[in-house]
């Protein structure tokens, strides 16, 4: 079966239900929408590293071939250790993950920021390919003073540039999807509302 990993009390279910019905109608593949918590409570690995999850309808074991993540992109999707344990269980299984953990992490702003640092992509690509890839990069700046060699002074320089020309920047939280970014004058407004710990996120 295919498992779509969803949030608890999912509100964005209409397109998910359409995918569920389409996979059944066109391919005769059953898809279940399950939370990380459900997978933790009702899942296990077989000796062959197959992820087996108890069917929420029949109570029989389901052998999962593919997991499609519609949840797990924000810290709030992991309120307890159970959700983290479920993600580890999933990653240890031989099921196809969409995305798998390395791709999932590569989509986060923090990993993108680290990959944009000098010498990072050069570890993985030829000098020519690295130079080409770098032409697609834009500046990525942390709002965490501890990430600058000169601490608060480094952060202050970034904030001064940002506040002087907010139209040149996008404020992005550590989440995927649209609707969470801030542009133009909203950048300065949002920064003034954030606590120091919120800025680090």
Describe what you observe in this structure.
The protein is α/β, with parallel strands linked by helices. Helices cover 40% and strands 15% of the residues. The strands form 3 sheets. It has a 4-stranded parallel β-sheet. Strands 3-4-5 form a 3-stranded antiparallel β-sheet. Strands 8-9 form a two-stranded antiparallel ribbon. The longest helix is centred in the N-terminal third of the chain and has 14 residues, at 14-27. The protein is elongated, with a radius of gyration of 21 Å. 15% of the residues are buried. The mean pLDDT is 89.
Q: What does the radius of gyration come to?
A: 21 Å
Q: How many DSSP-defined strands?
A: 9
Large-scale geometry:
elongated
Oligomerization category of the chains in this entry? single chain
How much helix, percentage-wise, in residues? 25-40%
Q: What number is the mean pLDDT? A: 89
Q: Uncertain runs with pLDDT below 50, 5 residues or more? A: none
Structural class: alpha/beta
Strand content: 5-15%
Written as H for each helix and E for each strand, in order along the chain, the element string is EHEHEEEEHEHHHHEEHH
Q: CA-to-CA gap between the ends?
A: 36 Å
User: Largest beta sheet: what is the strand line-up?
Assistant: 2-1-6-7
Helix count from the secondary structure assignment: 9
Report the major sheet.
Answer: 4 strands, parallel
What distinguishing features does this structure have?
201 residues; alpha/beta; four-stranded parallel β-sheet; 9 helices; 15% strand; elongated
